[in-house]
Amino acid sequence: MNTNEYIEKYSTLEVDKKNNQVVVSMCVPPRLQVEFVYQECEESKLRLIQTSEIQNYLKQVKKLNVSAIDNQSNNSILNSHPDALTATWVFTIEKSAKRTKKPSTK
User: Fold this and answer.
1) Residue 28 is assigned to a structural domain of this protein
2) Tally of domains in the chain
């Protein structure tokens, strides 16, 4: 499972068009402890999700042009640490610059 699939599975996305904000809340299960190599699975792998990965997910998968709010820039999720299993990110939606057509010359 790649990072985008992991984010899709464990996050909720709320878009507030009035305030031009996107709120992403993520809660992941704790990492499974394994004793032998053959017991490894997707839930036993170490996952670290940072703000930049959430921002890339929103740009690539959801096609939203967003920028992180400064005070939220250090949020991260680490599935092996019990205090870092939930996080919330708030992004602002950036308006895309309007493209003007160049007049055609004949």
Assistant:
1) yes
2) 1
Does 31 map to a domain?
A: yes
The verdict on residue 9 lying in a domain is yes
Sequence-separated (6 or more) residues with CB below 8 Å from residue 74: 51
Instruction: Identify the DSSP state of 84.
Output: S
Give residue-wise pLDDT tens across range 33-48. Answer: 888 888 888 888 889 9
Q: Which structural domain range is residue 80 located in?
A: 3-93
Q: Is residue 11 part of a domain?
A: yes
According to DSSP, residue 69 is labeled: -
To the question of pTM greater than 0.85 for the whole model, the response is: no
- Taking the C-alpha atoms of 69, 73, 78 and 82 in order, what is their torsion angle to the nearest 10 degrees? -80
In this structure, is the dihedral angle defined by the CA atoms of residues 77, 55, 11 and 71, taken in order, positive or negative?
A: positive
Nearest to 77 by CA among 55, 51, 98: 51
Structure tokens at 5: 């699939």
Element spanning 92, H or E: strand 86-93
Compute the distance between CA of residue 106 and CA of residue 96 in angstroms, rounded to an integer. 30
